[in-house]
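Practice problem 4.
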């Protein structure tokens, strides 16, 4: 019989589930268990299902690693997580289309992954964690305040609390997996965050593991204060260039990646043509329209699709990072992985410490609990160690929240507060300590039919204050705002992904769009596209603070109105004593909306900040259904839900 092993799979878009999965992996290592931690997309379910002989049904394990338990960790903002979709598609073999919002997830038919065959391959014991990431109340904008989709929400997201975790758990049970313990449903809105559920759930999980495998109790676990081996080791090159087997990469290209074919692994380095502020100079919010030249990229996109890119840390933060850790920025190294872990493909070989800090390590992020846990293993200073252990403990999470979360303190600022511990950090642990910079996504604000070989995005620059001396800045929006093509050629590696918004193909189907602020970005793409295709039944509800300060694309909308391609309804919230928002305008246009939706089968789209606007617009729509259609409150709600299920009501909102 093979030794019991643990396979931890995660689906993560913002890094929350990945951090939890890696935390579980470290706990398993301390308990001297065989463990693998993988993203769902990297785990070949089909391969696993065919490698185990059919007669081996009593001893159920992963044939390759002796895995007897599969643990999944998924972070879900009320809808399927993009990075979890690949693994889930395979597990759900029944062909169906849940709704327009869930296209691409759980709908691929792979008949070879039947319940019986997956049961033979694993029949594994399964335990699952989920997490719902809801909007944080803070003065950020789109993608955060950029026009992006870091976290998107269905209109019925509260009803779909932890949708992915529940769906995956149900499907694994259908496929024959044994349930080790009930699924854990965490909520980031809890006072103690997701750990309020994760901590007791993990305690129960390890209790079950040791009950199933009593022999594990005989193994002496590693002490908590003893550092685990680093995931990677750094091998520094001599001053004279050493010959390497792999081709060197030009570090001038941001992100350290080669050009074509556009994908996350190899994005296209698009030349920045313009970076123009579209808000008045006196307006508090700096919003930019950036245009890129994508000639020769073979990029194709439609309305609703998103541009993806990796941001870079500021030069100031890079130099501060190197100074705090006593690193020589120009020192060049190669990485060697321990075990079966792959070396990050985004890093060139060799790589400089400057490039590592600039393009890979998220040194300016707000650190998670795991950051303090690892720091504590390095610390030799009694006072600092005591505080780090407190921040790492379940009992100290309220203190940690006050120290880190409320003021949005960055990892660099934490290192400054713990100078003795920082001096003890070994370079080999950098990739364990700092998370990788995650790609950012922006709704594309242009159409190839109107702007061939061009891609435009609308970016609100995130900048706000907390009790910290320095203002808080959004990593990607601040980086993009700093790029100036007038000072020399600037290239931004990027690729395109299909978005969640899908627009009707029929020429006669009306489209109604509610996009206040930077939420109008995907609708500009849609209107340019539909205008070129001769689709004139378009209604846009646009809202902003002031007609004179942040009325994005005003001249374009007015031209479309003049030529009969658009019905424009505006709401300028601060131009009069009483604040007016798009949801009020929706109610005022009740007759037009009822006729378009009930009689002409119109589709309704919402994009923008997720705080209150989406639910308020939906409430206004229900009032329209009641007033103009004579429906009861329940009937209006049912009509709204039916529209969403059929793809006639779609949203793309973010915190």
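Answer key:
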């Amino acid at each position: 019989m093979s030794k019991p092993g643990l396979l931890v799979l995660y689906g993560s878009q913002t890094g929350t589930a990945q951090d939890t999965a890696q935390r579980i992996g470290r706990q398993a290592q301390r308990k001297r268990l065989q463990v693998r931690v993988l993203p769902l997309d990297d785990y070949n379910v089909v391969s696993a299902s065919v490698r185990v002989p059919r007669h081996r049904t009593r001893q159920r394990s992963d044939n390759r690693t002796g895995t007897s338990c599969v643990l999944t960790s998924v972070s879900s903002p009320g809808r399927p997580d993009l990075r979890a979709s690949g693994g889930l598609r395979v597990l759900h073999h029944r062909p169906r289309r849940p709704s327009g919002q869930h296209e691409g997830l759980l709908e691929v038919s792979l008949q070879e992954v039947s319940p019986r065959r997956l049961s033979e391959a694993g029949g594994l014991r399964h335990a699952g964690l989920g997490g719902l990431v809801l909007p944080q109340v803070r003065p950020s904008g789109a993608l955060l305040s950029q026009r992006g989709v870091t976290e998107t929400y269905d209109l019925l997201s509260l009803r779909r609390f932890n949708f992915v975790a529940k769906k995956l758990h149900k499907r694994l049970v259908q496929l024959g997996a044994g349930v080790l313990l009930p699924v854990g449903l965490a909520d980031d809105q809890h006072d103690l965050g997701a750990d309020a559920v994760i901590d007791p759930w993990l305690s129960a999980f390890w209790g079950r593991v040791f009950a199933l495998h009593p022999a594990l109790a005989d193994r002496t676990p590693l002490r908590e204060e003893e550092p685990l081996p680093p995931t990677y080791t750094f091998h520094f090159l001599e001053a004279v260039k050493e010959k390497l087997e792999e081709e060197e990469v030009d570090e001038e290209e941001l992100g350290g990646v080669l050009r074509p074919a556009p994908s996350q692994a190899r994005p296209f380095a698009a030349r920045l043509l313009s970076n123009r502020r579209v808000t008045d100079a006196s307006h508090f919010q700096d919003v930019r329209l950036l245009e890129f030249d994508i000639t020769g990229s073979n990029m194709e996109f439609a309305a609703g699709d998103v541009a993806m890119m990796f941001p870079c840390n500021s030069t100031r933060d890079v130099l501060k990072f190197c100074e705090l850790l006593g690193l020589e920025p120009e020192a060049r190294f190669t990485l060697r992985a321990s075990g079966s872990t792959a070396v990050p493909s985004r890093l060139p070989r060799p790589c400089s410490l400057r490039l590592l800090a600039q393009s890979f390590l998220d040194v300016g992020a707000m650190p998670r609990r795991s950051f303090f846990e690892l720091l504590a293993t390095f610390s030799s200073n009694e006072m600092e160690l005591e505080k780090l252990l407190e921040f790492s403990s379940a009992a100290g999470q309220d203190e940690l929240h006050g120290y880190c979360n409320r003021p949005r303190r960055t990892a660099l600022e934490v290192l400054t507060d713990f100078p003795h511990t920082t001096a003890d950090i070994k370079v080999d642990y950098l990739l364990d300590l700092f998370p990788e910079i995650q790609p950012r996504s922006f709704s594309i604000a242009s159409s190839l039919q109107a702007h061939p070989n061009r891609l435009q995005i609308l970016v609100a620059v995130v900048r706000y204050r907390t009790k910290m001396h320095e203002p808080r800045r959004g990593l990607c929006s601040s980086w993009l705002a700093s790029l100036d093509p007038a000072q020399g050629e600037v290239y931004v590696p990027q690729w395109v992904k299909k978005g969640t918004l899908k627009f009707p193909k029929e020429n006669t189907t009306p489209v109604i769009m509610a996009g206040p602020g930077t939420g109008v970005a995907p609708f500009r793409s849609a209107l340019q596209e539909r205008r070129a295709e001769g689709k004139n039944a378009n209604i846009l509800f646009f809202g902003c603070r002031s007609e004179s300060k942040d009325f994005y694309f005003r001249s374009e909308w007015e031209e479309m109105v003049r030529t009969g391609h658009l019905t424009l309804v505006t709401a300028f919230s601060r131009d009069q004593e009483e604040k007016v928002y798009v949801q009020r305008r929706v109610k005022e246009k009740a007759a037009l909306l009822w006729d378009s939706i009930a009689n002409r089968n119109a589709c309704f789209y919402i994009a923008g900040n997720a705080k209150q606007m989406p639910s308020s617009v939906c409430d206004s729509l229900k009032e329209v259904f009641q007033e103009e259609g004579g429906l009861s409150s329940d009937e209006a709600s049912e009509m709204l839900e039916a529209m969403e299920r059929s793809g006639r009501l779609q949203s793309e909102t973010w915190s």
